[in-house]
Amino acid sequence: MRIRFLLALLMLCIGSIASAQNLEKGKEINATCAGCHGEFGQGGSRGEYPRLGGLGVKYLESQLKAFRARTRINIPMYPYTQERELPDEDIRDVAAYLASIELPTKWPVFKDSDDALTRLTMTERVMIIPRVPGNLANGEAIYQKQCHTCHGKTGMGRGMFPMLVGQYTSYLKRQMDKYVKGERPHDEEAIGGVLNKLKEEDMQDILAYITTLQEQQ
Predict the structure, then answer these.
(1) Structural domain of 144
(2) DSSP labels for 124-160?
């Protein structure tokens, strides 16, 4: 009972943070982002552009500011994140809007009264990441030992650390490689070497395991 109460309180706090921002303005700002990341923040091009919808507010804010400061290298993002284009208040608004988006992992059940546009919109919001090969038992063991502290037992993320479940596998692998090569700084320096200790097949097993977690959402 206590755990349920704490979870309910946490969700209430998150909702309060989102409601404090201007979600309508965030939606307007997202129209620019949608060119690459999709209207609902679902990403695109099979992971060339990552999913943003449903990611945590703190994570989204921190990454947009990291692009601006160029501590996270991504040349295409520079012009969009400069303060004259995206001041701090706009960052908070668009982050709150994107965090509020829910992308279901199951195909919708339509009503007879749903018109074609409604059905198309509902379908476009569905986010199902295909399973990838790997040793699920090994992936689960490594994930729950090395990754869950920051990213959560079910991959939903925590605070400054992003949700992994429901993200494009190709994008996650690309970011893992960047961390290993030192091309992207880890969000928490104290644990930045976790991936460097893993074998290539271990990382593949983790990715395979993460694709099974979306069914628990």
Answers:
(1) 136-216
(2) HT---PPP--S-HHHHHHHIIIIIHHHH-TTS--BTT
Beta strands in the chain (DSSP E): none
DSSP code, position 70: T
In CATH, what number is assigned to the domain containing residue 140?
Answer: 1.10.760.10
In 3D, which of 49, 61, 14, 52 has the Cα closest to residue 30? Answer: 52
Residue of 180, 143, 190 lying closest to 164 (CA atoms) = 143
Look at residue 157 and tell me if it is in a domain: yes
- Rounded CA gap, 90 and 81, in Å? 10
From residue 80, give the alpha-carbon distance in Å to each of 87, 90, 131.
Answer: 10, 11, 33
What CA–CA distance (Å, rounded) separates 11 from 5?
A: 10
Q: What's the pTM?
A: 0.85
The sign of the CA dihedral 46, 183, 141, 149 is: negative
Please report, in tens digits, the pLDDT of each residue of the chain (217 residues total): 555 544 455 555 545 444 578 999 999 999 999 999 999 999 987 899 999 999 999 999 999 999 999 999 999 999 999 999 999 999 999 999 999 999 999 999 999 999 999 999 899 899 999 999 999 999 999 999 999 999 999 999 998 999 999 999 999 999 999 999 888 877 655 555 788 899 999 999 999 999 999 876 5
Instruction: Verify that 23 and 120 share a domain, yes or no.
Output: yes
Phi, psi of 144 (to 5 degrees): -70, -20
